[in-house]
Every structure is written in structure tokens, then in C-alpha cells.
Amino acid sequence: MKVISERVNKTIYRDGDTVIKVFDKSYSRANVLNEALNHARAEETGLNIPELLEVMLVDGKWAIKLEYIEGKTLSALMAENPEKEDEYLELFVNLQLEMHSKKAPLLTKLKDKMMRKISESDLDATTRYELHTRLDGMPKHNKVCHGDFNTSNIIIEEGTGKAYIIDWSHATQGNASADTARTYLLFKLAGKDELAEKYMKLFCNKSDTARQYIDKWLPIVAASQSVKGKPEEREFLLRWVDVVDYE
């Protein structure tokens, strides 16, 4: 088995025509099983997703085995071909819109997950109350949301050019604009401010969504994301929560 990538709490290996994602012993078994379940539910929507093959134990650690897609991530392709940035961004937004057109009624509701995350945050009670109230007032939708939709979670298959969406551990069903706000913040977190603005503009144009509407989601999404993650990311995200204006 060859290591493809190492992330916090997990190592991803290639084994022939499969990928094995091995989680640390400290990682919750429930979270591994939930990720596999999310993946299976997303697969049922008919989107291009590597096939889930098995949930298993590797040296006493929980692991998920998936079909291996021969290709490069969209982020790698963007870095290699900067002149094609607009073309790749168009593909990226089209993929996100296709995903948002799907339904998966058994996925966790995005609102429920965000309510819980805001409660878990160490924000003061006044800010938490304001965010909970705002979130409660947002329109309720049931679109498939990825929760971590970024260019490194898209693989473009070699030869066919077919795009596959990977890493469904944060998938929920809910309002697509929350998912869009999350992607925008991911670009900002990576220091890609220009790309973030380009992305937002393109998404709003293609989906006929008002920018102000997605902006309303930013403090809510930033607060719920601040619960996990690196300290420097938390600091960045909490700056977005500071835009809360009390009436």
C-alpha cells in the first residue's frame, strides 16, 4: 500500500484500484460509520462519486475502502494550468449546482447540525443567541450539501475528464447558500481572496442567488465551523462572526 496523503487523524493509501482511508485509533467509530453512510447516501443520488466498497479494520484501526479514481484533483490542475482558471472554476460551480439539485432525505439536516455546533462553540451567550435566532429564521431547504466543497475534493479522471466528488464526511441536506458560504470561506482560509470573489460572483450568476443572501449565512457558517479545526483557522473564522450587528 502506498500513502497518497496524510491528514489530521487519518492516512489515505492506494492499494491497486482501491483507496483505503485509515483512521487513527482515537477517531470515533461512530464518525467513521457515519462517513461511510453519508457516502453511500450521496452515491444513491446518482452523482459521480467513487464507489464505497467496504468498512473494515486495518491493524485494529477503522478504515473505509473506496474505488480508486486515476486522475488529479481540481486544485492540482488549477495550480498547473493557471491560464485555465476560469474554465476550471466554471466546472467547479456547475458540479456544485448539480449536487444542490439532488435530494437525499436520510442525510442529517444542515440546520440541526449547525444549531448543535453553535451551541458547542465558546462564543458568548449573546452571540450564540443571535446566531441561533438568525439560523432559525433562514429558509428551510433540503438540497444535498457537501459541507467541504473545495477544489481538492474534486478529482478529474485521466482520459475521460469525468469529475468525481470525494470526501462526504460533512454531507447534510439543507440550504445550498450555506454550502456556498462554506466554500467561499474555504477559499478565503487558503488565502485565495481573488478566487473567492470570482467564485461567489459566478455562483450567484449561475444560480440566480442574491449575494446579500449568501452573505447572511457567513457568520452562521463561520461560527459552526470554528468548533473544529486549527487554532489559526478558528481565529480567522471568528473574525467573520464579529460581523454580527445587534439591532
Please sum up the structure shown.
Helix content is 47%, strand content 19%. It has nine helices and ten strands.
Keywords:
3-stranded antiparallel β-sheet, single chain, 9 helices, 10 strands, alpha+beta, 5-stranded antiparallel β-sheet, 247 residues
Descriptive account of the structure:
The chain has 247 residues and is an alpha+beta fold. 47% of the residues lie in helices and 19% in strands. The N and C termini lie far apart (57 Å).
> What would you call the structural class?
alpha+beta
Task: Write down how many β-strands occur, each being a DSSP E stretch of 2 or more residues.
Answer: 10
Q: Biggest sheet, open or closed, and with what strands and sense?
A: 5 strands, antiparallel
Mean pLDDT: 95
Count of DSSP helices?
9
Overall outline = globular
Which consecutive residue ranges, at least 5 long each, have pLDDT under 50? none
